[in-house]
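Weekly modeling sync, notes
Attendees: S.R. (lead), two postdocs, one rotation student

Agenda item 3: backlog of single-chain predictions. S.R. asked that every request posted to the team notebook include the full sequence so nobody has to chase files. The rotation student volunteered to paste the first one in as an example of the format we agreed on. Action items at the bottom.

Example entry:
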Amino acid sequence: MTLINDTDKVALSARNVSWDWTGLPMHYVDGNPFATHYCNGMNMLLPEGEVFFVDVFSKALPLIVDEAVREDVIGFIGQEATHSSSHQSLLDHLQQQGLRVEPYLDQVRWFFRQLFGDRNFTGRRKQAWLLERVAIVAALEHFTSYLGNWGLNARGWDHTIEPRVLDLFRWHLAEEVEHRHVAYELYTHLDGRYWRRVRAWFLAAPTLAILWIRGIRYLMSVDPELADHDRRIRFRDVRSAWRRGLMPSPASLAAMFVEYLRPSYHPSRYGSTSQAVAYLASSPAARAAAH
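Predicted structure, as returned to the notebook:
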């Protein structure tokens, strides 16, 4: 993964985007069930994950004493709330077409609302738990900034993903690049300890991977358009997808994992703000929202 030193920042604001999914095929990535459910696996994590981000950062607002950090966090909250509702609209469409996403979403909700949700702490323990969750959001945002940079440059996506879904993904990923500094800088502002940041990453990264893989397996098992002998993840399908550029390569993911462990890490090294802003200026959904 190419790292780009682009530290330009822009004022963050939510874009009132929407999509009409009428006629969207079940397998919207080149008619490929695995590649489609690889995308859907993340789609199932995003709505609840981003509600969690919004909740944690809203609770952190009273602790912020730097006005620039506060403004960025408010913009971040608005963008993440829109991301959640946008991906939920795609999940709702798939559910209506017979793909039973709701049972797995119940598991995702338990993860974010119960495991990482509010606890009956008071005083220092309450603030420490909030800081732990800010660190977890910063860790997860490292992955989304990486994915944003990767997705904006994924030429394998250009003619394989249905155009409306492609715009949903790239609009979202462009905003992830646009606000990639916010979670890390909030964590640095409130705490910043290296070992807490690393501990959060070692918790968040494997959990994200497990939930994503479980989601793909679940979707393959309930896909109404698949025969019984196709309802499993096959290594050749995975290898074909990353060789065609439909998903990040193992080497790229490994480099991303190690990058967050560097004491000198800063998310501005992933992606280009100017590239993200240029995509948002051309995105059909973002342009429609601006008029």
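Discussion: group reviewed the output briefly. The radius of gyration is 19 Å.
Action items: rotation student to repeat for the remaining queue; S.R. to check formatting next week.
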